[in-house]
Amino acid sequence: MRVVELAEHMVRLSGLQPHRDIEIKAVGLRSGERMQETPVGCAERRVPTAHPMVFELEREAVSEPRDLDVEIGELEQAALRDDVSAMLRLMQVIVPEFTPTHTRP
Length: 105
Description:
alpha+beta
């Protein structure tokens, strides 16, 4: 979903007209920002609810149990060492959908 479309939708939900009642302006991207967001991850699927505009997210079963505390501890240690490559690798282990956009300059 494009961020502009999301903003327009939010304005409409508040009972106003985008670009008439509320100006939406693209002022540029900051580091780490994207013009498009994917609200549902690749391992998730939308499940309808009683309300037609509200969905629940259902995740696929995890194939093997993980010790998230250990992985986060390793990530913390990598951050304390300022080991960017280890931090990126561990982030991809913890959050498989994570794709780094860039590393430090």
